[in-house]
Amino acid sequence: MNLHLHAVARRLGVRHIAALSVAVSAVWCAASAQAADQVVVGLITKTDTNPFFVKMRQGAEAAAQKNGVKLLTAAGKFDGDNANQVTAIENMLTAGAKAILITPSDTKAIVPSIKKARAAGAIVIALDTPTEPQDATDALFATDNFKAGVLIGEYAKAAMAGKPAKIATLDLAPGISVGVLRHNGFLKGFGVKEGDASIVCSQDTRGDQAKGQTAMENCLQKSPDINLVYTINEPAAAGAWRALKAAGKEKSVMIVSVDGGCDGVRNVQAGAIAATSQQYPLKMAELGVNAGVEYAKTGKKPSGYHDTGVTLITDKPMSGVDSKDSKFGLENCWGNK
């Protein structure tokens, strides 16, 4: 090849490199613009270990993928960890979240951070647990926790068949709305009021199995003739059953609970829990993400309370109390199937 042809080749190479650079820059800019335009939704749960919140995150991830949005997730280190939830809200706002879904650990202490997020232009949706006040968030997607309590209260009343009740309530913790609603619903369903003589012991468990066992042991020491136990959730119920079994009372004491996780439903199947009210965390998250996407794209804000359903699960149905069996419960449960 002569010198003239070498020069032409070099010039063509430069042109091709320049054209390629322009093309790459155009693709990079388009990708950057697309990333900048992508809707960002945040999910903050109480913890990332409880199967209930694991299922909630799965529901949010599926809905985010379906809608083509970016999902940011965070969680407290333990149930009641408000500080890490506050930090998560701040981080998500910085990352451009247009909607933040949260299961508040401290229903009152989180409110100032929620107000700041809403003032910054994001919507905030509570999942599972309402804030105090409830209208601190734009909307609430949750189980009707009061109804969940009413259902197991009505069941327990029917199952006792007129036998005098000696009730232990294994609760959550003071001032947390979900615990208060379930507790009060149970009393309403059973037909007694707070302070009634039939309530012989009340202990807080934070919904923890080990604490549930300790609480039940304490109650048995105080009132050995307990014959009915209400528990805030199924881990607390499992702890209560262990304490009852150790005392040789597991067959003479009825336990009712709330959640509908797979382990809990299996305990219904095994007879450790007489009945439980099943809730649906995946649905809460799915509806929450969809509402966040709609707001980001149209400006339409969700509002008010959205009931995500509750079903009484028992293998010993009672006349006049609607229920489904453990087979239905296992088909719709969350956690380790």
Structure description:
- By secondary structure, the protein is of the alpha/beta class.
- The protein folds into two domains: about 40-145 and about 280-300, Rossmann fold (3-Layer(aba) Sandwich); about 145-280 and about 310-330, Rossmann fold.
- Helix content is about 50%, strand content about 15%.
- It has helices at about 5-35, 50-65, 80-95, 110-120, 145-160, 175-190, 210-220, 235-245, 260-270, 280-300, 325-330; strands at about 40-45, 70-75, 100, 125, 140, 165-170, 200-205, 230, 255-260, 275-280, 305, 310-315.
- The strands form two sheets. It has a six-stranded parallel β-sheet, sandwiched between helices. It has a six-stranded mixed β-sheet with strand order 7-6-8-9-10-12, with helices on both faces.
- α5 runs parallel beside α6.
- The N and C termini lie far apart (about 75 Å).
- About 45% of the residues are buried.
Topology:
Blueprint lengths: L2 H35 L2 E6 L5 H17 L2 E6 L6 H13 L4 E4 L8 H9 L3 E5 L11 E4 L2 H16 L6 E5 L5 H14 L8 E6 L4 H14 L5 E4 L2 H13 L7 E6 L2 H9 L4 E4 L2 H18 L5 E4 L3 E3 L12 H6 L6
Parallel strand pairs: 1-2, 1-3, 3-4, 4-5, 5-11, 6-7, 6-8, 8-9, 9-10
Antiparallel strand pairs: 10-12
Short description:
By secondary structure, the chain is α/β, with parallel strands linked by helices.
The CATH superfamily of the largest domain is identified as: Response regulator
CATH architecture of the largest domain: 3-Layer(aba) Sandwich
Q: Using DSSP, what is the number of strands?
A: 12
Question: How many structural domains?
Answer: 2
> What's the Cα radius of gyration?
26 Å
Report the top-level CATH class of the largest domain.
Alpha Beta
